[in-house]
Structure formats: structure tokens, C-alpha cells
Amino acid sequence: MPLLSDRSGWDDEAASGGLAPSTRAFWSSDPQTNADRNSAHLAEPSFGQETLRQRTALSTRPRGLLSTCANPRCGSGWLHLWRSRSRPIFEGGWSCSPSCTAVRIEAATRREMEGRRAMAGLSAGPHRHRIPLGLVMLEQGWITGEQLRRAMEAQRAAGGGKLGDWLVQHEGVAEGQVTRALSLQWSCPVLTLDGYDPERMAPLLPRLFVEAFGVLPLRVAAGSILYCGFEDRLDPVLTLAVERMFGLRVEAGVVRGSAFQGAHARLLNATFPRAELVGAESASPLVRAFSRAVERVRPVESRLVRVHDCLWLRMWTRPQTGPIVDASGVEDVIASLTDD
């Protein structure tokens, strides 16, 4: 039971938005990019657009003796006078007892698993494939038909490899042109590493996700926009999960291959939050594992989202003043989902 399914001078950004000028016109107009994102939104519940700072500020206000349990079926919260009213908090609400925590986490787990099934139903429909990278470059006049033919033959003879790498290494194509073509293919911006600090960005995501999904959290702009870079393909499921987890707007783009690989390696060597990996054959053991974690950590806020075939529980152990936290201030639990 695998925990995760593997995925397989133009770099300047506009000063105001982190976009390369030549791709800004292509960024949001592509029907397939919008369809990918809209499908993910249709399959996932919305938590609203409030920021993490707003959520933690609400959830960590002093709570009086008459604070009520967030479990709508609880009838005995007023009896637990010994229990702190400030924690544990799960998705903005306090639970009066471990049993109420379990009820709320069970509902959230069911919500995420239903979203997964809905996404599977959407994926079963007709799929519009993107224009192949070689044809994009040929159409733009960046390569010749002969260069494309030789690169594809070399790729087939070697049994694989990325077409862009074959064009760069054997046909003398500039790496920046391949990156531009990828941005047109995915209708996204080209992002640079300006201001990138791996130690600062590492606590945003579990190391497992960074490695398995090839994502590079680059920076947070204006306290509300997270720029995430990918090497050669975007991941709308992951970016939507990050938006739901943090209340940030995620802007995804491609990063020049050689720059991405070095930055990604540095990020993997940074300090990530503590993470517990859980595997189970049904929802009940997952609910128990999540409930135990929330009761053990007693977070000031916690939240559950789905990322591909995983459920990701993040727990903030102390109030935060912004979306980027110290690795010691959060804990993660990652659970695999099996087909049901």
C-alpha cells in the first residue's frame, strides 16, 4: 500500500507579481489549466478565504467557563469544567472531550474522502491533453523539425528522459526557451528564485510532499500570496490543498530546470516539521490516529486536508502571527488512503 503516488534573460519577473512578462498573457486564459483547477475546487469543500493569522487569532482568544463544544451532537460540554477552553482546537472549534474530538475528526475525514471519490469521478470523464512540448516549441519557431525529430529519436533510444533535456543537451536549445515553452504549455508564469530562503520556507509543507510532488515553495508576498514553483508540470491538487490549509492564494509556475534542481536539493536539506506517517486499511483507524494526535499535542489550531492519496493533518502548537512558522511550532500527521 504505497503512501504516495509518484509524479512525475527570460527568467526576470515583473516586480509587482513575480511573473515573467512574456507569459503573463498566457497565464489564466488556458481552458485546460482552468479546468484542472475548477475540477479540484468542485471536488473539495471550501474553508473560506480567511488567513491562518485570522483563524488562530479567533481560536486562541481566552475562553470562559461557558464556552461550548464544537461537536454539534455534544450534550455534556458544560460538565467538563476541568478541561481547558483554549485547546485542543480543530478547524476553528474547541472540543470538550476526546470523544467529541473524534466525532469532529471523523466528519472531516469523511468529508475529505468523499472529495476524493468526487475527484475520481471527474477524472473518469474525457480528458483534454495538452499540446506536446515539442509542438509548442516548433510552433514558436524555437526549434526546427529536424531538431525535434533527432531529440525524440534519442529519447526513444535511451528509453526515456525529458524531451526538454534532450533538446538542451544534444540540440543546443537554450534552457530558458524550454522553460518558456513549459510556461506556455501549462499557461503559467516563469518564476525565479529571487528572495528564496529554504530554511524559512521548509516549515510550510511536510518533507514527504516536497520530495514526492516536486514542489518548491518560494516566497509569500503581501502576507497572502504563496508562490510555488515546479520543474516541468503543475500540481493543481497540491496547490488547492495548500490554499485550503493556510487560507493563502497559491500562484504556481515553472522554474528553470537547473535552478529548480539546486533549490529543491537545498530545501530537502532544510529543517522540516515533525511528521508522523500512518497507514490503515479503513477510515476508522485513521480517525483514531488523528484523534490521538490532536489530544496529545493539544494544538491551538489544527486542520485536515486531502493531498492526492493522502490525508494531511497539521497542528499548530502555539499562536502564529503569519503563515510562515518555525518548524518547532507545528506537527504533521500524514495518512495514506486506500481504495474503498
How would you describe this structure to a colleague?
- By secondary structure, the protein is α/β, with parallel strands linked by helices.
- The strands form 3 sheets. A 4-stranded mixed sheet has the order 3-6-5-4.
- Helix content is 41%, strand content 15%.
- The longest helix has 26 residues, at 98-123.
- The chain has helices spanning 31-43, 52-59, 98-123, 133-140, 145-158, 163-171, 175-186, 198-201, 207-213, 236-246, 257-268, 283-297, and strands at residues 89-90, 93-94, 190-191, 216-221, 225-230, 249-255, 274-278, 301-307, 310-316, 330-336.
- The relative contact order is 0.18.
- Helix 1 (31-43) packs antiparallel against helix 3, helix 3 (98-123) crosses helix 12 (283-297) and helix 5 (145-158) crosses helix 6 (163-171).
- The protein has 12 helices and 10 strands.
- The model is unreliable at 5-29, 47-63 and 121-125 (pLDDT under 50).
- It has 2 domains: 52-122 and 271-336, no CATH class; 129-268, Type II secretion system, protein E, N-terminal domain (GMP Synthetase, Chain A, domain 3, 2-Layer Sandwich), CATH 3.30.300.
- It is elongated.
